[in-house]
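> call design_seq(struct)
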């Protein structure tokens, strides 16, 4: 179930073809673009829309909260956790080098953001399973606990 979202309106537009992408988001324009193909499957639509909405949540988080998520992911990587909770994060994770994590490179920070949004979609889109959910269950539970600690049930989430 999606938490209560609090913020200015976000416009959602459907486009006939976004090429290889299902969606795109512009934070400054408060705009989400969806490929028309995602409308064919309600569950996939939900997952993708939640992911895109959480890009707006990500930019509203405090630096301390974003850094805490980074530390959470760095611990996963140090534990040799494979997989992710969506293609957008997994494709970036697979490109990471150890130096990216240590230096907090742009590549690392993009992965961190996509992982946050994919994790939110995993938790809130209410799917039973998905082929892109390759992160082992123990790490999924830890991510869910992190989200519960940050976003208390019933409390609005700024986006």
């Amino acid at each position: 179930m999606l938490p209560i979202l609090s913020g200015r309106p976000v416009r959602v537009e459907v486009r006939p073809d976004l090429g290889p992408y299902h969606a795109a988001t512009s934070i400054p324009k408060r705009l989400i673009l969806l490929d028309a193909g995602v409308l064919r499957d309600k569950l996939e639509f939900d997952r993708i829309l939640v992911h895109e909405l959480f890009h707006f949540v990500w930019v509203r988080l405090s630096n301390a909260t974003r850094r805490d998520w980074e530390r959470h992911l760095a611990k996963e990587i140090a534990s040799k956790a494979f997989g992710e909770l969506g293609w957008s994060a997994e494709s970036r994770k697979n490109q990471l080098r150890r130096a990216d994590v240590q230096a907090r490179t742009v590549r690392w920070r993009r992965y961190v953001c996509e992982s946050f949004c994919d994790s939110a979609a995993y938790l809130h889109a209410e799917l039973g399973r998905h082929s892109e959910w390759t992160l082992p269950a123990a790490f999924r539970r830890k991510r869910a606990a992190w989200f519960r600690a940050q976003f208390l049930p019933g409390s609005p989430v700024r986006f």
